[in-house]
Amino acid sequence: MLPILTGVLALASLGAACTPSVTTVSGTHAPATVCSGALIFADDFNEFDLEKWQHENTLAGGGNWEFQYYNNNRTNSFSKNGLLHIRPSLTEDQFGSHFMTSGHLNIEGGAPADRCTNPQWWGCERTGSPTNILNPIKSARLRTVNSFSFRYGRVEVRAKMPAGDWLWPAIWLMPAYNSYGTWPASGEIDLVESRGNRDMRLNGVHIGTQEAGSTLHYGPYPALNGWERAHWLRRNPAGYDTQFHRYQLIWTPDFLRFSIDDVEIGRVMPGSGGFWEFGGFNSNPNIENPWRYGSKMAPFDQKFYIIMNVAVGGTNGFFPDGVTNPRPKPWWNGSPTAATDFWNGRNDWLPTWKLNVNDGEDASLQVDYVRVWAL
Ligand SMILES: *[C@@H]1O[C@H](CO)[C@@H](O)[C@H](O)[C@H]1NC(C)=O
């Protein structure tokens, strides 16, 4: 009697436990079976799990000539009190000031975990000169590229943005397989980006720590990117650097919706013409639509992985030349010596990072948890 009863109960609970989901996953830390509503990836950062989070190791500057050197070093990324910290530091602290203007940095290593992860834009090897110094800031960029990628789902990241002039934190998703070709044809999902300046204004509007943004990048090639039609901002007079907030994404076969603390900031629900029509690319018949064989959500109908980083500066205009800041922006975006100009202005921006207070907590992107659920 007893074995039969147990069997019936087990069957019943199994039946209730797993409704198939439209969400698909891959990676070493992806569940074998995806049940509707189930938590399919999570990290509370009680320890720093490098099986989940691969460090990028590169001088590439994110394609925007950003000023940081991403490395795997516990000065720049660590778990402490259950919080992941991504903390910038000065490259000079490790190599000395003379090295910045004359040293040769080859960051390619022999161990699997030491490989340079992005050779583009002189990302693996650079030589410093007085006009073109080596990347002056060390920081970290972590990704789940091997451990977890997913298509459709619900994401929530509880995090506190860093404060400090010209810091550029980001929590975002990139396509795992570039199913529609290279950037931005396969898309990019920016859950949250902000700027660390505590009182920076553009045309009178605070665009520093009081602003957080979500964006989609998509288009047939880099010069044709429809991000401006899928870009949203939310202001918070208290600053996103003073408290933890929950940054959320719901991504379905019909729409993408971004929220902060359960309040929607923006959404895209493309029609049958998909992102080609939504981006306005259909007005030019001479451009080939890379998504023509995909669903209406293409390129956002393929698997993406998670990235978290703190970048610094860059010349792409994320920090516009026209801003007012208590201490002026030390580089022009058109400058061929932007990193040097930035470094020469360190007496202005370095004090705002407060690296010597609380182990640089203010300038750190702090993450309490990352959670992903299946639809
Ligand atoms: C990590 O960074 C610190 C601070 O820049 C530096 O002193 C140290 O040498 C680095 N460690 C390694 C293993 O590179």
TrEMBL record:
Q: Which Gene3D superfamilies match?
A: 2.60.120.200
Taxonomically, which superkingdom?
Eukaryota
Q: Which terms are listed as keywords in the entry?
A: Signal
Q: Which CDD domains match?
A: GH16_CCF
Signal peptide residue numbers: 1-17
InterPro entries, per database record: Beta-glucanase-like, ConA-like_dom_sf, Glycosyl_Hydrlase_16
Write down a Pfam family by its short name. Glyco_hydro_16
Span of domain GH16:
23-375
Family assignment?
A: Belongs to the glycosyl hydrolase 16 family.
What name does the UniProt record give this protein? GH16 domain-containing protein
Question: Organism source for this protein?
Answer: Loxostege sticticalis
